Amino acid sequence: MYRILPLILVFFLSLSGATIVSKANADANSFSIEDAVFRPGISDRPGVVFFKLSNISDKDKTLISAQSTSAKKIEIHTHDMKNGVMRMRRLDALTIDANTSVHLKPHGLHLMVFGYTASEDEMSITLHFETEEQITFTPEIVSYGAK
Ligand SMILES: [Cu+2]
């Protein structure tokens, strides 16, 4: 009996895991991600992620967070001009209107990656939306100096 119980638990855990995966696959139909690039920071400075995020659904979608198992924290940032100086500012959320795209690019919107641990050659990032939809992508890792 004591041996069977953990097995049953594992079975139910894997069942719920499977549900999450299929939901994520279905949700992936609402979005497309193109030209995703991750530039790790030099030494322990934060890195940045750029990509084009398209909302290919008929409803507005709001990005509320991003995470990666290879980073301590990922924030949504934009740039503002203040007194003639370009400054980064953290956003709590980023809405992509129905059937439009946003471009995360240098000097504009970006994801800021803190505490990147380059333990593997690839990094996957999961975006979480207000609707509980999520999409995972793997940006190309490009170091500074490279183009
Ligand atoms: Cu930033």
From TrEMBL:
Answer yes or no on keyword Cell wall biogenesis/degradation: no
* Alphabetical UniProt keywords: Isomerase, Signal
Query: Any signal peptide, and if so, which residues?
Result: 1-26
Q: Give the protein name, as stated in the record.
A: Phosphomannomutase protein
The record's section on InterPro entries has: LpqE-like (IPR007410), Lxx211020-like (IPR058248), PCuAC_sf (IPR036182)
User: According to the UniProt entry, what is the EC number of this protein?
Assistant: 5.4.2.8
Give the matching Gene3D superfamilies: PCu(A)C copper chaperone
Q: Which GO terms describe its molecular function?
A: phosphomannomutase activity
UniProt-listed Pfam families: PCuAC
The species this protein belongs to is Candidatus Micropelagius thuwalensis
**Source species, domain of life:** Bacteria
Q: Which PANTHER family does the record match to this protein?
A: BLR7088 PROTEIN, COPPER CHAPERONE PCU(A)C
